């Protein structure tokens, strides 16, 4: 089977890796306008899925999240963990708005520990917080993980081609299966008006002494990564596509994080970054259809619209997308 994957971020690469596992003889090519500057590269990569995250049904959504966690946890347990940028991490979520803010519908029965904070733990940060949770989870450092995934794919014969497509129908005559993992690009390629960009800005600082992540509500976060680099965030600008660094937001983010955890006041800034999250109203789109161009036809599977949870749930939606493709392929063979 000849497979074309469109999109070179975490969704496209993870889909390709899983395809290689399940369809060993498949000839896979990944098309992307850019492999080095995707929104995935900006993500902090912590495995924390919002309770508002949604697939087509609750059961499917839960499966996506569980499958994703198990996928990353298997990497964490392997010899490739440090190369792939996957590690265990633990930390705290504090809030004043509501006790529901520190709960997590998807994670509480999945991660090894998810519990209330103790009275002593509230003293770890500044602020008179009313509610708190401590949990253990996983971290995927995309600046390590994405190059690792690309190399693994290329070593297994997958082709990576930089190319801008004007239509998915361009691929129909040459490919049996097309996986659409284009994120915000699907607005153009699929005319999907439900897709909206949510701009995020964050700061990377050097602070190897911080080993634990901290969230103050959900708009202030401090997340340790590899090599002593912390991610300080953040911002959520709905329907904004401004890729320029905003100096006012930088000041606000740094001030919030330093007030929250004074221990980072001396941390040196390494980099400021901006990314556009591909948010899709209602739910993430993982759907299948048949695409036609003249006398040629192919199976097309959409896998996009993950918002800020692409890194978290890429393995789960990829597995589901491949399942849909295999079912349709078997069905089409049975009709012959």
TrEMBL record:
Residues annotated for D-dopa binding in this entry: 221, 277, 308
One MF term in the entry's GO annotations: FAD binding
Keywords: FAD, Flavoprotein, Oxidoreductase
GO BP terms, alphabetized: D-amino acid catabolic process
Positions with a binding annotation for FAD: 182
Pfam families: DAO (PF01266)
PROSITE patterns with a match to the protein in the record: DAO
Entries under Gene3D superfamilies matching the protein: D-Amino Acid Oxidase, subunit A, domain 2, NAD(P)-binding Rossmann-like Domain
UniProt xrefs under PANTHER family: D-AMINO ACID OXIDASE (PTHR11530), RE49860P (PTHR11530:SF17)
Family affiliation: Belongs to the DAMOX/DASOX family.
Protein name: D-aspartate oxidase
Organism expressing this protein natively: Eufriesea mexicana
């Amino acid at each position: 089977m000849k497979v074309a994957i469109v999109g070179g971020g975490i969704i496209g690469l993870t889909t390709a890796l899983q395809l290689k596992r399940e369809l060993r003889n498949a000839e896979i090519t990944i098309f992307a306008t850019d492999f080095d500057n995707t929104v995935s590269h900006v993500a902090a990569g912590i495995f924390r899925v919002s309770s508002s995250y949604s697939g087509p049904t609750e059961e499917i959504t839960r499966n996506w999240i569980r499958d994703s966690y198990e996928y990353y946890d298997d990497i964490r347990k392997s010899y490739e963990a440090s190369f792939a940028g996957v590690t265990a991490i633990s930390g705290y979520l504090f809030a004043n708005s509501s006790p529901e803010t520190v709960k997590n519908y998807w994670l509480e029965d999945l991660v090894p520990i998810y519990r209330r904070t103790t009275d002593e733990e509230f003293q770890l940060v500044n602020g008179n917080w009313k509610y708190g949770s401590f949990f253990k989870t996983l971290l995927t450092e995309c600046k390590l993980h994405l190059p690792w995934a690309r190399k693994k794919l290329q070593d297994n014969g997958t082709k990576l081609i930089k190319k801008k497509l004007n239509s998915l129908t361009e691929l129909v005559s040459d490919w049996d299966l097309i996986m659409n993992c284009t994120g915000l690009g699907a607005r153009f390629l699929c005319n999907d008006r439900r897709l909206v960009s949510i701009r995020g800005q964050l700061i990377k600082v050097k602070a190897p002494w911080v080993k634990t992540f901290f969230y103050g509500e959900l708009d202030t976060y401090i997340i340790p990564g590899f090599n002593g680099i912390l991610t300080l965030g953040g911002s959520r600008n709905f329907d904004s596509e401004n890729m320029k660094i905003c100096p006012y937001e930088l000041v606000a983010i740094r001030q919030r994080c330093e007030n929250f955890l004074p221990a980072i006041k001396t941390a040196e800034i390494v980099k400021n970054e901006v990314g556009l999250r591909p948010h899709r109203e209602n739910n993430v789109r993982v759907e299948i259809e048949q695409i036609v161009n003249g006398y040629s036809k192919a199976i097309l599977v959409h896998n996009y619209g993950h918002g800020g949870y692409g890194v978290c749930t890429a393995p789960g939606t990829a597995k589901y997308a491949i399942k849909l493709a295999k079912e349709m392929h078997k069905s089409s063979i049975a009709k012959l």
